[in-house]
């Protein structure tokens, strides 16, 4: 059952770099996918993208992702659009091909099913020609890798209804993305037109022997690219104007726009010599790394930037923060009646390689992280959702103790159980056990004392009566359980 209301299954037309990224974005949000792609290698390629995406997205977000959706490959566009709630087209940038796919798929999809197109530059009005119910087509232009990059440009054509755009924005937002809703269609939309201008200038710099491919990238990644990641272009120039703002900046630097610095619309001829030079420089820059290794490096760097921006509550970091709050809430909204007769099994994880230290075992800090995530799941379980946090109330951990009982390695599947040891109106005492899923063997335990705090007053305060009532129900069962041997232990003095 998909955790996103009204989005149980989506149809994907195309399974290349972008289509595979969309598959990962949907599947890792718990949505089933039906994919059409005539390439016989599509299943392998998408599987490799999925492996990278699982690794990346579980590193990016703190909450556990929902159970992964099911991926099914189908033989025709019609099958991909049958019994689905949304369709995303990601075929190559050929108008006739896209029109053909959209015509075939739209002929079988019910009128309410919205079609998003991943086109990076074709006009939606042109793609709507020949569609059944063309009013339900909207551009949903993402950026690579789709499973990490939050931006998706949405743009309607002449026939597109406002309801169609609203639905697309709703879907993309639920996936943890930032829809940029454009009011007018234009070739290339906004982001690609800006990137194209930089790309044209870069080609001239290589063509004229001014800079190599690596030097051009260094000029961006060590310079303006760092600022672009959180403030874009216009706000940076506004700041450069000082107290007087953009008007002062334009008065000072506006005349430079007439200087012969760029060759924006004049593109160098793509001769064999220039192409060979670009390829040689690009290959030298990449070195021996494979495409999957380069993708993993790209993902790690993106994760670091986005998580850093999250700490500043700005830009892409704010999008991530909002998405994590949604994931926390989805995790607490379960229709399965909990079994309170024993410790609550609330969290599972497969140990990623980055959790492993030089000894080949899971690092000490990761056991605390794993236990903490189990505790977070418990807090969501008793009702501490995003609305509760927004009201200025939360539980803060004030004391913890970990016992390490066995080693865990990369690839081990672990689960966490939480037992309520005691509580009052302001305090929680939780005991967690971390076990291997294959044999239930105990790997580590942890005990946490939590204090309920009114963050607006910055002091302890009683928890909400509804939460206290839930805790009382759990306590009726958990206080009858055997007390864990490690509960209440301090640091030992030897044997």
Rounded average pLDDT: 92
The span between the termini is 51 Å
Number of strands: 14
The name of the CATH architecture of the largest domain is 3-Layer(aba) Sandwich
Number of helices: 17
Radius of gyration: 26 Å
Silhouette: globular
The description of the largest β-sheet is:
8 strands, mixed
CATH domain fold name of the largest domain: Rossmann fold
The quaternary organization reads as: single chain
Features:
6-stranded antiparallel sheet, 495 residues, globular, Thiol Ester Dehydrase, Chain A, single chain, Rossmann fold, alpha/beta, N-(1-d-carboxylethyl)-l-norvaline Dehydrogenase, domain 2, 8-stranded mixed sheet, 14 strands
Task: Give structural notes.
- The structure is a single chain.
- The chain is of the alpha/beta class.
- It folds into three domains: 9-181, 3-Layer(aba) Sandwich (Rossmann fold), CATH 3.40.50; 192-311, N-(1-d-carboxylethyl)-l-norvaline Dehydrogenase, domain 2 (Orthogonal Bundle), CATH 1.10.1040.10; 336-478, Hotdog Thioesterase (Thiol Ester Dehydrase, Chain A, Roll).
- 41% of the residues lie in helices and 19% in strands.
- It is built from 17 helices and 14 strands.
- It has an eight-stranded mixed β-sheet, with helices on both faces. Strands 9, 10, 11, 12, 13 and 14 form a six-stranded antiparallel β-sheet that branches.
- Strand 5, helix 5 and strand 6 form a beta-alpha-beta unit.
- It is globular, with a radius of gyration of 26 Å.
- The two termini are 51 Å apart.
- The mean pLDDT is 92.
């Amino acid at each position: 059952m998909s955790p996103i209301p009204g989005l149980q299954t989506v149809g994907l037309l195309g399974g290349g770099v972008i289509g595979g990224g969309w598959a990962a974005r949907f599947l890792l949000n718990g949505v089933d996918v039906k994919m059409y792609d005539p390439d016989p290698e599509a299943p392998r390629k998408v599987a490799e993208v999925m492996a990278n995406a699982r690794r990346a997205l579980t590193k990016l977000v703190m909450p556990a992702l929902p159970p992964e959706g099911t991926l099914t490959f189908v033989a025709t566009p019609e099958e991909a659009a049958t019994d689905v709630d949304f369709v995303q087209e990601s075929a190559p940038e050929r108008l006739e091909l896209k029109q053909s796919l959209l015509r075939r798929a739209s002929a079988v999809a019910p009128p309410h099913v919205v079609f998003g197109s991943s086109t990076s530059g074709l006009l939606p009005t042109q793609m709507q020609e020949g569609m059944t119910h063309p009013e339900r087509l909207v551009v949903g232009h993402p950026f690579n890798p789709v499973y990490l990059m939050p931006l998706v440009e949405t743009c309607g054509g002449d026939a597109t209804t406002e309801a169609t755009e609203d639905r697309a924005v709703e879907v993309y937002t639920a996936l943890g993305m930032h829809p940029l809703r454009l009011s007018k269609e234009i070739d290339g939309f906004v982001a690609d037109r800006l990137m194209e201008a930089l790309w044209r200038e870069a080609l001239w710099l290589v063509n004229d022997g001014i800079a190599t491919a690596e030097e051009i990238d260094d000029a961006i990644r060590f310079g303006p690219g760092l600022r672009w990641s959180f403030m874009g272009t216009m706000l940076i120039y506004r700041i450069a104007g000082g107290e007087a703002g953009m008007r002062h900046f334009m008065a000072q630097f506006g005349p430079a726009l007439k200087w012969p610095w760029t060759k924006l619309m004049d593109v160098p001829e793509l001769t064999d010599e220039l192409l060979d030079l670009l390829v040689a420089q690009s290959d030298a820059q990449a070195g021996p790394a494979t495409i999957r290794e380069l993708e993993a490096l790209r993902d790690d760097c993106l994760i670091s930037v986005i998580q850093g921006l999250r700490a500043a509550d700005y830009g892409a970091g704010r999008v991530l923060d909002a998405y994590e709050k949604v994931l926390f809430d989805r995790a607490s909204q379960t229709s399965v009646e909990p079994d309170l007769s024993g410790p609550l099994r609330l969290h599972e994880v497969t140990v990623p390689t980055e959790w492993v230290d030089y000894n080949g075992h899971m690092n000490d800090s990761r056991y605390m992280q794993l236990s903490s995530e189990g505790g977070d799941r418990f807090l969501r379980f008793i009702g501490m959702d995003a609305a509760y946090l927004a009201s200025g109330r939360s539980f803060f951990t004030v004391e913890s103790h970990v016992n390490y009982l066995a080693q865990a390695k990369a690839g081990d599947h672990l689960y966490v159980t939480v037992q309520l040891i005691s509580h009052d109106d302001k305090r929680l005492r939780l005991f967690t056990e971390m076990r291997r899923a294959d044999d239930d063997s105990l790997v580590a335990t942890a005990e946490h004392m939590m204090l309920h705090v009114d963050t607006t007053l910055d002091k302890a305060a009683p928890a909400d009566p509804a939460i206290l009532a839930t805790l009382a129900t759990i306590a009726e069962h958990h206080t009858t359980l055997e007390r864990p041997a490690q509960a209440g232990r301090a640091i030992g003095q030897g044997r």
